[in-house]
Amino acid sequence: MKKILILASLSLLTSCLDISAVMLYGGPGEYNFTNASLDAIDHVDESKIHRLQTFSDQDTIEILYIGDYSQIESDTIILFLHGNVPSMDSYWSTIAHIANLGEQHRYGVMMYDYRGYGK
Fold it and tell me: Which of these, 30, 43, 64, 102, is most buried using a 10 Å CB contact count?
C-alpha cells in the first residue's frame, strides 16, 4: 500500500511540471522550397509553389500550398500537419512526394507552421 501511495504522489507531483520546453521545440526556421534537395521524380513546378500567410493574434502563420492556385476550390487538397519540428521546411521532400503521387501535381498539398514555429 505504501508503494502505491508513493507512486500516486509522484505521479501527481510530476503532472504539475511544465514539460513543454522539452517536448515542443518551436522556433525560427528557414524555408528552402526548391527542387535541389528532391529526387527527380518528386520535382515540383515552381509555378505551383505558393507561400501564403495568415495572422492569428500577434503571430504570423506561414502556409505552403503546392498545386494550381486557380483550381484550389475544386482540387483535391491534402492537408499535411508536420508535427513537432522547428518548421515545415523539414518536410519539404515529403509533401513534394505526396503532391506527385500517381502523376506529377496530381494533388494539391497544403501545410502550415503552428503558432510560434517557422519564420
Answer: 64
Q: Does the pLDDT value for residue 17 go beyond 70?
A: no
Beta-bridge partner residues of 111 = 64, 80
Work out whether strand 77-80 and strand 108-112 pair parallel, antiparallel, or are unpaired.
parallel
What is the chain's mean pLDDT, rounded? 79
CA 19 to chain centroid, in Å, comes to: 21
Closest CA to 82 of 71, 72, 92, 73: 92
Grid coordinates given for 23: 517536448
Report how far residue 91's alpha carbon sits from residue 89's, in angstroms, rounded to the nearest whole number: 5
What pLDDT, in 10s, does the model give residues 38-52? 999 899 999 999 999
DSSP state of 78: E
3-state helix, strand, coil in the chain (%, to 5): 35, 20, 45
pTM recorded for the entire structure: 0.71
pLDDT recorded at residue 25: 52
